[in-house]
Structure formats: C-alpha cells, structure tokens
Amino acid sequence: MGLFQKVVGAAIRHVFDNPAPPSVAQARTRNQKAWNQASHSPIYGYRYRVARIVDETPDTRSLWLEAEGERLPNWQAGQFVTCCISIDGQPLKRAYSISSAPNEGFLRLTIKRLKTGQVSSYLHTRIDEGDTLTLLGPSGQFTLDQHANGPLLMIGGGSGITPLRALIAEQLQRYATRPITLIAAFRSEADIIFKTELDALRTEHPQLNVEMVLSQPSKHWKGPRGRLTDRSVKSLVGTFAPDTQAYLCGPEALMALARHALMEQGLAHTQIHEERFQAAGTRPLSLSETPHAIQFEPTGKTITAEPGQTLLEAALTNDIPLEYSCQVGGCGHCRVRVLEGEVIESTPNCLSESERAAGYRLACCSYANAPLRITQR
Ligand SMILES: Cc1cc2nc3c(=O)[nH]c(=O)nc-3n(C[C@H](O)[C@H](O)[C@H](O)COP(=O)(O)OP(=O)(O)OC[C@H]3O[C@@H](n4cnc5c(N)ncnc54)[C@H](O)[C@@H]3O)c2cc1C
Ligand code: FES
After folding, report:
1. Which ligand is nearest to the CA of 141?
2. Regions of the chain where pLDDT drops below 70
3. Residues 19, 309 contacting (CB under 8 angstroms)
4. pLDDT value at position 280?
5. pTM (2 d.p.)
6. Which CATH number fits domain 33-139: 3.30.70.330, 2.40.30.10, 2.40.50.1020, 2.40.110.10?
7. Distance separating alpha carbons of residues 158 and 176, to the nearest angstrom
8. Is the Cβ atom of 87 under 6 angstroms away from ligand 1?
9. 152-275 CATH
10. Atom 3, ligand 2: which residue's CA is nearest?
C-alpha cells in the first residue's frame, strides 16, 4: 500500500473512531467572527476604502485604497498585505502584493481573477468603489537590499509583475542612474499588465530597459515571442555585472528556469530574490501517519493534530486562535516555538536559520511528527 493510501486510510479510520471535529472553515468562522466588524487591530486587520478601481486587462484589476481615518501603513516596495474577506459566512484570507511604492503616495493592489478562485472572483465582481476591505500586514521580505547598489534584473510573468512594478517605481524615484532591466512574460498584447505605465516610465527613465515576451501575440507584435525558456532568458539577459541583484516573481516554472539560467551565468543564490504566489512546495512526502498530541504553553491546552493537518489547521480546528496571514510560509505571522517534539516542515519558507535553530517553526507549513509542546511566541 502506498503512503498516500496509508495516510488516507488512517485518517478515515480515525474519523470513524472519533466524533467529527469542526471543519477548519467552521473553526475559522468561530475564531474570527470579528473580522468583518473589526477595524484597526494588528490581529484582525485595518480597514481601507476602495477609492478607485481600474481594469488593467480583461482579467486583472487594480484597487486603489485609502486608509479609513488613518494614515497609510508604512510599507516597503515589494511587500504584500493579506486581504480578509467573508464570503457567505466563510472567512477567507489571501495575500496580495502592493503594486505601488510608498514614495508614490498611494496604496494599490492588482488582482488577477482566477476562474474558480473564491477571493479573486469576489474582488472582481462584488467590490465597488466606496466599499471597504480589511487588510493585515504589510508583510514579506521581497524588498530591496539596502546594502546592494548594483544593477537590478527583474523577471516576472502574469500577475507576478505586481511587486516588481512597485520595486521599479521605488528605485527610479530614488536613483537617477541605477540600471534596471525588466523581462516580463504575458500571453498576448491584451494581457500585459501596466503596459501604459511601464511605457511611460521607460520614456522618462532611460536606465529602465523593458522586454515584454508574449507566448501568443498577434501577428503585429514586434517584440520577442514564445514561452520563456532557459535559452531565451540567457539571451534576453545577456551579460550582466557581477553585483547584479535579481528579483523573480511569477509562475513557479518560470521562476525555476530563470533561477537556473541566472545561476548558470554565475549569479549567486544570495543575489536572487524570489516571491511565490503559491505555496512553495507540495506537502512533505514523509508525513506521520498517526495523530499526535500538541500541548500549547502557557495554558497547557492539549489538542490532537490529525495526519496531514498542519499545526495551524489543527489549532484553528480546535479553537486555538493562532495568528496567521499568508498561509504559504511568506509572512511569519504563524510562527510558533517548538519546546518539545519534532515537526516536518515545507521549505523554503521565510524563517531565518537562526530562528530555526532557536526552535521556531511556521505553523502553516509544519506537521507534527511526534507529540509536541509548543508556545505561540
Ligand atoms: C505573497 C503573495 C502575494 C500575492 N500577490 C498577488 C497579487 O499581487 N495579485 C494576484 O492576483 N495574486 C496574488 N497572490 C495570489 C493570491 O493570494 C491568491 O492565491 C489568488 O488570488 C487566488 O485566490 P482565490 O481565492 O481567488 O483562489 P482559490 O479559491 O484559493 O483557488 C486557488 C486555485 O484553485 C483553483 N480552484 C478553486 N476552486 C477549485 C475547485 N473547486 N476545483 C478545482 N480548482 C479549484 C482556482 O481556479 C485557483 O486556481 C499572491 C500570493 C502570495 C502568497
Ligand atoms: S501564515 Fe504566513 S507564514 Fe504562516
């Protein structure tokens, strides 16, 4: 019997042997009822008014946000916020990069609608100018290294352009001469996000070089065409200075090939910064097949983590209101410290080596591999 069948079998047996726990969605509803009424709390979020909506492409729109009665948050170009939405009573959270830079004086999110995606569809069809949204954050480390001042190379695809556009705007205003190259992949001319803005920036700032690559362009398209490959990335990038800093954001396959091409050209992994819009990896392969007890300190409350449940899912299902935000290992909000026991975790995630050495783990991407004793901070 394969591991998958064993894990599923163990889970099914456990469900039949034990009364059903509330679903994660139900637990989240109970724990986070305050979301929609909440305002101005670092845990429940801050409220923003949608001042303006701009359709960027047929499936992508930007929301320009104003803080309700407050100043805009302090954020760094490249960071994201977490949008907290309640749809038919089900609280949902999704991360969205801020597509504007702080020195532009406005806060903007740019959201691509996924066909059956809950939150992106909601933001496209049920949010109007004048409505309010609850956001957590800002979070994230996809920001510029303040100590590096070499040329910038940005490679992105689709909605991955959002944090790259913020980084570019920030740098162009700050430095008159720092060279920036953007290689951005889209399907067709109609799918290019921020085309007008990027064209204007390119005209105004000669140090910005933009290469759009279209996989299904019209016959009038004069730029590069086809899917980005290892070879095309190398040829578009050409030779680069040894102190170049690269920023990648887009579909996983595109990021993987760009990373590979850049490393083959001699860039060190410390010079390559990546932002993922999906969870970094699939669940770890060798998950424990048995339920494990988790004791939370300092209360001593003990719950059971079912096979395949993350620590976050186990906590929320059992009414332990662990903090969380992005749920993909990118923000650190769900950090817990493991005092006893062992977990299996998906990597990469945003914990530093020193945090990991001190016993910290991210609840959204860790699974119990033994009975645990943990604390939230
Ligand atoms: C750090 C970070 C920054 C991000 N920034 C941006 C950004 O700037 N812009 C942006 O557009 N996105 C961004 N994202 C992605 C965003 O957070 C959401 O993941 C995205 O909007 C999809 O959420 P959703 O609720 O619409 O889709 P979900 O409901 O979560 O669905 C996710 C996927 O599953 C598919 N799916 C859903 N239901 C079903 C079903 N029943 N059967 C089969 N498939 C199904 C959907 O089609 C979709 O492909 C970012 C993510 C992260 C982690
Ligand atoms: S919720 Fe963001 S890292 Fe876990």
Report:
1. 1
2. 1-45, 69-71, 279-285, 348
3. no
4. 52
5. 0.80
6. 2.40.30.10
7. 28
8. no
9. 3.40.50.80
10. 329
